[in-house]
Amino acid sequence: MESKFRFIKALKRQAVDSTPVWMMRQAGRYLPEYRAVREKMGGFLAMCKTPEVACQITLQPLKRFDLDAAIIFSDILTIPDAMGLGLKFQTNEGPYFENPVRTAADINNLVLPDMEQDLGYVMQAVRLVAHELKDKAPLIGFCGSPWTVATYMVEGKSSKQFSVIKAMMYQESALLSALLDKITKASCHYLHAQIAAGVNAVMVFDTWGGILANDCYQPFSLHYMNQIVQYLKSQPQTKDTPILLFTKNGGQYLEKIAQTGCDAIGIDWTVDIKKAKAQVGQSVALQGNLDPCVLYANPKVIEAEVKKIMQVFGQSPGHIFNLGHGIYPDINPEHVQAMIAAVRKYSALQRGNEHEP
User: Fold this and answer.
1) Is 75 a known active-site residue?
2) Which strands, in side-by-side order, build the sheet including 201-206?
C-alpha cells in the first residue's frame, strides 16, 4: 500500500509533490520552548525517560515548522544505559559512563535489555507521539550504530582520539567483536520494538564510523549495520519499514552502504550529492546534505545554498532534504524557517508549479 507521507514515498524513491524536509536534532536546544522544558525537568536524561515530556519535545518542531517527519526524542546511548553502565550527562561535557567496558569480564556481564521493561519509556513515548501525530506526519525511530555506541561504552565518554577503543580493535579484535555482537543484537530488538510501537521508519546513526581506517570500516562498522538491516528486512512486522543509514564522513563508502539493502543513505556536507547520486543510482534514496553552519548565514545565503543542492540533485525521485549532520544549539529558528521555505520554493519550481521571479 502506498504511503500518504512524502517522506516515506521519497525513501521508497516514489514521486512526491514536494521534496520532503526534516532535520537531524530538530527537537533540541536551538528552540526556546525546548530549553524551557529542560530547565523545568532539570536535565536531558530526565526528559528522555519521561514519556509525556519526550512526546512534547518530539512534537515541538512540527508545531513551529512545516516539516515532513518527526523523530522520537531520545538518545543513541539508551541501550548501554539499560545495560547498567551508569549513563550521566555533564554540562558542556557530554555523556559519560560510570562503568566503561574494557575487559572480557565486562562484556560477559552485559545483559541484553528487555525492550518493554528496561527501555519501555522509549516505547511509551513512541506510542504517545504516534497517537498525537495520527496521519499528520510519519515518525522516525533510531539507534546508534554498534560501532558508534561501542566508542562511548569503551572510552567511557566522548573522545577525540578514540585511542582506547582503537587499541582494543588492533590488539584484541575478538574482544571488540564480542561487544559489537551484543550491541547489534540489542539494536535489532530495539528498532523492532520501536516499529511495533508505531514508528514509520528507522535510522541508524553511525556518527563515528568515519574515524576508522579504510580497511577497518567494513569489518567494525558496516558489517554490524548490515546485520541490523538484514534482521529487520527478514521479520514480518518490520520488513516493509524503510531503513536509513548515516555514516558521518563516510562518503567514500556509499556503494558499500547501498549494498546492505537499506532504503536510504544520509550524506554529510563533505559529499557532492550529484556524485553520490551517480554512485548509488536508483538503488537507494539520499538524505542531506546542507552544512549546518549555513544556518548561521542570512536568509538570502541560506536560500542560495538550498537552491544549489536542489538543482544538483535534480527532479528524479529519492531525495530527502536535511542537514549534513545535526543542527547546532545556537542557530536562530528563523533561519530554519528560511531553509524550509527555500526547499518548498525550489521544489515547486522543479515541478513546474511556480515560476522563479
Assistant:
1) yes
2) 70-71, 139-144, 201-206, 243-247, 264-266, 285-287, 319-320
Residues with Cβ within 8 Å of 290's Cβ and at least 6 positions away in sequence, in order, are 269, 305, 306, 309, 321, 322, 323, 324, 339
- Does the annotation mark 38 as catalytic? yes
Pairing of strands 243-247, 87-90: unpaired
User: Cell for 233?
Assistant: 528486512
Whether 263 sits among the annotated catalytic residues: the reply is no
Q: What is the pTM of this model?
A: 0.96
Residue 344 known to be catalytic: no
Residue-wise pLDDT for 195-210, tens only, equals 999 999 999 999 999 9
- Give yes or no: residues 90 and 175 share one domain: yes
Q: Which of 34, 68, 75, 118 is catalytic?
A: 75
Compute the distance between CA of residue 224 and CA of residue 177 in angstroms, rounded to an integer: 10
Q: Both 180 and 211 in a single domain?
A: yes
The one-letter amino acid code at 250 reads G
The answer on 313 and 215 residing in a single domain is no
Question: Which residue has 544556518 as its cell numbers?
Answer: 295
